[in-house]
Design goal:
Elements lengths: L1 H28 L5 H5 L3 E4 L3 E4 L4 E6 L2 E6 L20 E6 L2 H4 L9 H10 L3 E5 L7 H14 L6 E6 L3 H8 E3 L5 E3 L14 H8 L1 H28 L21 H28 L3 E6 L3 H5 L6 H12 L3 E4 L1 H4 L4 H8 L9 H20 L6
Parallel strand pairs: 5-6, 5-7, 7-10, 10-11
Antiparallel strand pairs: 1-2, 3-4, 8-9
């Protein structure tokens, strides 16, 4: 009996050592083996504007179970290569800021709308800089642009700010600014990078081959169930009736749900406008042309909300503050809702598909062409 127990323990010890050793090799050889810890290499906390992308990294990130190449420049902005961006521009330079839509989650840079605009404008000797990062909102847009202009000394001529319906919840519930000017958040997960270390499960998923296999299977199974759920909903034709589908995503519900508007939408919009006011004063002080872009989420597309509170508020603000206004609502609402959701959004997601990015890029390029011909810029 003792011999059997001894042999069993020996075998277990060998298996554990082999398992842990192979996991260490996996970390070295497989780019996104330890995805949670892996992301901490390039999704980092920032002492001024809460979180950022690390500068000059070449990594593999994942979105919806699909890997994609993520490259940043010296400013921590997504780019075609890990280049050093000079602070002073020798040619016309346009900065773009927003959240995950502008960052372009799910796609390599060249397939995102900023990447497409970057390639097209480069032929006209115009430089495009992407300052957008997932989970940003107007408070962070202002604070990051302020940091880039006044602390880092970055020079650019124009600024395009993409404000989406989900930004309003972020302003109302996620972020606040400390007396010293730092943006902080009190939520307990997600964007608070320092809280992403995880527990025993996360450790096993990174440091054990068996744990990695188990968690990979579990993740794949959850993704399969999610896709099946979406497919079933599509067959039944009830995309607009189930609160768990993308057309009823909570973050953008304030434009059509009176309860959400009363609970946090009104407060969030007031705070967002205050942040945009700060941004407008900043751009005026530095002689930077400012344009606000408004675009719908699937919920607004599904309901045909051309008169969404989000769109009307931003349009009114831009007019009152002599800022340019890039209205993407007409483009996304130009076809039947089912077709728009199928063609321009990732299946089961509020974010744009590759075709959606191409649509937005075409509208941005049209807008920039009109602005270049106009003698009066929104400065």
């Amino acid at each position: 009996m003792w011999r059997f127990l001894k042999n069993t323990l020996l075998v277990l010890a060998v298996v554990v050592v082999a398992d842990l050793t192979l996991a260490q090799l996996g970390k070295v050889l497989v780019p996104d083996w330890s995805l949670r810890a892996h992301r901490l290499k390039f999704r980092i906390p920032d002492p001024v504007f809460h979180h950022a992308l690390a500068p000059q990294v070449v990594q593999v990130d994942r979105w919806g179970g699909v890997g994609y190449r993520l490259v940043t420049n010296s400013l921590g902005g997504r780019d075609a290569e890990p280049r050093v961006v000079p602070l002073n521009a020798e040619r016309r330079r346009i900065a773009v800021i927003g959240d995950s839509f502008v960052e372009g989650v799910g796609y390599p840079f060249e397939q995102t709308f900023v990447g497409i605009v970057h390639d097209a404008m480069r032929q006209k000797d115009v430089e495009i800089l992407n300052l957008g990062v997932s989970s940003y909102s107007p408070l962070l847009y202002w604070r990051k642009v302020q940091y880039m202009l006044e602390s880092k000394g970055l020079k650019f001529d124009e600024l395009l700010v993409f404000v989406d319906p989900g930004d309003i919840l972020n302003e109302a519930l996620w972020y606040e600014m400390t007396p010293d000017g730092s943006v902080i958040s009190n939520i307990q997960s997600g964007i608070n990078i320092e809280q992403r270390g995880g527990g025993v499960g996360d450790w096993l998923a990174v440091n054990s081959v068996i744990g990695k296999l188990a968690f990979t299977v579990a993740d794949r199974w959850r993704l399969h169930l999610r896709q099946k759920y979406i497919s079933d909903a599509e067959r039944k034709g009830d995309e607009g009736s189930d609160s768990d589908t993308i057309v009823n995503a909570r973050d953008a519900s304030w434009t059509y749900d009176q309860h959400a508007w009363d609970k946090w939408g009104k407060t969030g919009l007031v705070r967002a406008v205050a942040s945009l006011d700060r941004l407008r004063e900043l751009t005026r002080r530095h002689g930077v042309s400012l344009t606000i872009a408004a675009y719908p989420w699937p919920g607004q597309v599904w309901r045909g909300q051309m008169d969404a509170r989000h769109r009307l508020a931003l349009q009114e603000w831009a007019s009152a503050n002599q800022a340019g206004f890039l209205d993407l609502y007409p483009a996304f609402l130009s076809v039947p809702a089912n077709q728009a959701l199928q063609d321009w959004f990732i299946k089961g997601d509020v974010h744009w598909s590759a075709e959606g990015h191409r649509l937005v890029a075409s509208k941005v390029l049209d807008y920039l062409a009109r602005q270049a011909k106009s003698p009066t810029m929104a400065r």
